[in-house]
Amino acid sequence: MYEKSKDKKLDKILFENPTAEYRAAPFWAWNCVLNKDELLWQIERLKEMGMGGFHIHCRDGMATEYLSKDFMSLVEACVDKAEKEGMFAYLYDEDKYPSGFAGGLVTKDVENRMRYITLCSKKRSDAVSFSDALATGKPAFLAAYDIALNDDGELVSYNMIGEDETARNLKRYVYFMTFECSDWFNRQAYVNTLSKKAIDKFIEITYEQYKKSVGKSFGKSVPSIFTDEPRFMIKQPLSSAFSEGEAIMPWYEEAEADYQLKYGASLLQGLPEVFWNLPNGKPSKIRYNFHDFICARFTACFAENYGKWCSDNGLLLTGHMMEEDTLYRQACAIGEAMRAYAHFGIPGIDMLCNERCFNTAKQAQSSVHQYGKAGMMSELYGVTNWDFDFRGHKFQGDWQAALGVTLRVPHLSWVSMKGSAKRDYPATMNYQVPWYKEYPYVEDHFARLGTVLTRGRPEVRVGVIHTVESMWINLGPNENTANIRESLDADFENLTRWLLSNHIDFDFVCESTLPEQMAEITQKLTVGAMNYDVILVPSAQTLRFTTVEILSKFVSFGGKVIFAGSLPQFVDAIPSDLALKLASSCECIPFSETSVITALDCVRDVAIIRKDGKTAKDMLYALRSDGDEKWLFIARMEQTIAGYTADVGIWQDISVRVRGEYTPTLYNTVTGKTEKLGYYYSNGNTVITKRVYASDSLLINLSEKSCENKIVIEDERIYGTTRFFVPMDYTLEEGNVLLLDIADYHIDDEPFTLNEEVVRISDKSKARLGYPTTSCQPWVMESKPFEHTVTVRYKFNVLCDLEGLLLATEDVERAKITFNGTPVSSSPVGYFRDKDIKTVALPNPIIGENVVEITTPFGARDFVEASYVIGYFGVELKGTQKYLVPIADKIGFGDLCPQGFPFYGGNVTYKTVYEAESNQRIRIRLNGYAGACVRVFVDGKDLGIVAYSPFAVYTDVEKGTHNVEFKLYGSLINTFGSLHNGNEAHTWYGPSDWQAPDEWFRYEYRLRKTGILASPVIDIVK
């Protein structure tokens, strides 16, 4: 995919102007009735944003039939458009997610539905024969057990007994189950990912259909297909050993026969050991085998099956697995994450919210390194909310780039904001946001990074044994094993953070795939394409025999193995001294940050040191060799410098020590230019000195040593400072906004219910009429004549004369609208933010209370949504009461909400003047803003975007008066955000944020600050 990265040297022109393969390709959410012209127009907008392509992502709300002739013709048109625009059209393999059910087309057949087993304390009266269960999806009796537990809830003995046989001790039943149908799966069920036959059917319906339509473009303008969150039935251990509640484990039709064939024993006979712990801390070999067996089956049926089809057809498989971030979650949903990555062309991760799951990224990056993959994908920026600004975009992308991400898939770019789509994990990254034309400022940075970080090979000297198999043996009752599991996960997370923050790069080594990856053993351990000087074994309870054997050979050749923390007492989950014997010939250290870092200092390539001599633990790095050069990328692990907020332009002076002597050059990824760095040589190391700010990342080229001790002075003197203390002129890029989202309402001709919020009106109306409130796709739902209507009545007060108002609302063509009793024309005159939120002209309002009444047909596909009054007025809020007042003549720096703009999310330009007493060089600093970014102008000259710390631009001015303008690019947080969720600890910004329980819900508005929040500062500098 990155053919240009194979050139002998980096092309400087490519670095300055990266091509499409290095650019992001967002999830482009097809979430409405699809229109060809609109789709082609939006592709142009995505290109305007700096995107290199798009992932065609069928999403909640899509009304065009999935995989139909009409649907595929749109895919073909978009692929053709991508080719014409020099972009890439990336495919996505499902209608919504998780992948595998083909929008329900696969799982219409019961035999393709997910299977599992449930352990319960009561006999089911609805059970049928096993053959009938396979055909109908009803439960089938599988086994019953007489379970003897000791006082600690440990398994003393067990026997398989008849379904109706009396047990001497606890009696427990196991039933074979089929996943139930639901609206989420379009009234079907999820697929049986443990059935190759079912997955083959999915490939036939989905992948072959894409091949038929756009196969000629595979490997060209269609480089890959994305598979999203596949899983088996998520494992649910018992809450306690004596619980009468259910426990669940994944299963498939042939599980018993296949297990017997592989292990020579009955799984059903030993099944209680999967659910209960054995006495005295002894692990169950049966439990260990079961989890390995299910994981291997899942990997073969899904990832290997998909990967082979893609490879055979010239397509790269990308996407990510379910629940990758912790050992426990992946053990329960997929077995282990790393085993599947071997079959991906571009392995990937999912990084939601503004989280930093370093383990998730490290697992995928390790496989990318070891298998020599083309790159690594991340689905990022989802669930971050409307006010996630350019600073957040850069921070999230930077640390992920350092941990291997080369293909960024921003989540999401909505085709439409109609209905519930506007609550689908905002914000959208498309034409609807007021900053979309400025986004190349962000995207060019990452594309330039991509031209470098896809070159050469990674330099990583430490391998760390991945300990997920120690989690497997602890998947017993929560009461007995949850603390152990939490400790394993804490160790897993802590070790990764210790190593990264102390600048010891590493790869995880997957035990199950190690034998097939291992090559020559010398003083370096070769794992696929990587060679490791040191292998670290961290607090593992069990190791595989093959791992112990390989590490023993490595040690015998002089290789270095370090055991940190408790030593493995088991091999393949059987008590054994083999690992202990290996450890006796190795270095054994406590499991602590100091011990681990001290032991690995011998293989350190990079150190990043603060001015006070301490390790800069808020930074991490990636190092790559590229012919006779190296590339060093340094990114932040924390978004802010300790003790400061993101608004403060504070810096750190750091020294970067690199093993070897080089000439360093900074490649500025924001500007596309190169810059000199201060550096000197010490004890065979190159020491680079640099001042860094909270938003900075550094891409450094390390070329052949030329001369020594280059000093770069970064201090500058300030000779005078100006701030702005008085209100100023301003312009809005669009009319101000009055949000109408609390209304009286009624269904049909029923009496009005007073003062309810619109999302609650929608949900209550659906419940009242028996319509599904979950997410069945419209294309599945039968289109029926409307039998009902919903009327909403909004009230607001006007305290001044106003004219030229617009009402923005959805489904305006179908609506009956009155304003103060006067009918309003339903002919649109434009749209507000999204083409499905159309505007109509309102009559002039009266002084006093005004009433907007909207009646619309209401069916299973419909929602009741907020409306908006647009015009040039001010808005005052008093609780839930809203008043339109004269628009402010001037505004000041600070929150715009109390200045008459509580719901305005568009762009606003602040206009002021600066008096220069002489010819000067000035620095203009923005000390705080709440929006996407700010653009600065002096006398009409565009000085560029201010988005990242230190929030400054420079220019020369002559003596005299100068017009200075600050254009803030807005956030739609107070226009479309979840303004009634009173639980500020809730940071999962998706549909549930708008459907807050009563304990969280507030009718009063929870607004966020917007605007330039503090006076900009103009410094005279030299």
What is shown here, in short?
The protein is α+β, with helices and mostly antiparallel strands and 1022 residues long. The protein is built from 23 helices and 59 strands.
Q: What labels would you give this structure?
A:
single chain; 1022 residues; alpha+beta; nine-stranded parallel β-sheet; eight-stranded mixed β-sheet; 23 helices; 59 strands; 23% helix; globular
How is the secondary structure organized here?
Layout: H1 12-16, E1 27-30, H2 36-48, E2 53-58, H3 69-85, E3 88-92, E4 115-120, H4 130-136, E5 140-149, E6 155-161, E7 170-178, H5 196-214, E8 224-228, E9 247-250, H6 255-263, H7 267-270, H8 272-275, H9 285-312, E10 316-320, H10 327-333, H11 338-341, E11 346-351, H12 358-371, E12 377-380, H13 390-402, E13 407-410, E14 413-414, H14 440-453, E15 457-458, E16 462-465, H15 468-472, H16 478-501, E17 506-509, H17 514-517, E18 518-521, E19 525-527, E20 530-532, E21 534-538, E22 542-543, H18 545-556, E23 560-564, E24 570-571, E25 574-575, H19 578-584, E26 587-589, H20 593-600, E27 606-610, E28 619-626, E29 629-636, E30 651-659, E31 662-667, E32 674-676, E33 678-682, E34 685-693, E35 698-704, E36 718-723, E37 729-732, E38 736-740, E39 742-747, E40 753-757, H21 758-769, E41 789-798, E42 806-810, E43 816-819, E44 822-824, E45 830-832, E46 834-841, E47 848-857, E48 867-871, E49 874-878, E50 881-885, E51 908-916, E52 920-925, E53 929-930, E54 933-938, E55 941-946, E56 952-957, E57 960-969, H22 973-976, H23 991-994, ...
Parallel strand pairs: 1-2, 1-14, 2-3, 3-8, 8-10, 10-11, 11-12, 12-13, 16-17, 16-21, 21-23, 22-24, 23-26, 41-50
Antiparallel strand pairs: 4-7, 4-9, 5-6, 5-7, 15-28, 18-19, 19-20, 24-25, 27-30, 28-29, 29-35, 30-34, 31-32, 31-35, 33-34, 36-59, 37-51, 38-48, 39-40, 39-41, 41-47, 42-46, 42-48, 43-44, 43-47, 45-46, 49-50, 51-57, 52-56, 52-59, 53-58, 54-55, 54-57
Helix pairs in contact: 2-3, 3-5, 5-9, 13-14
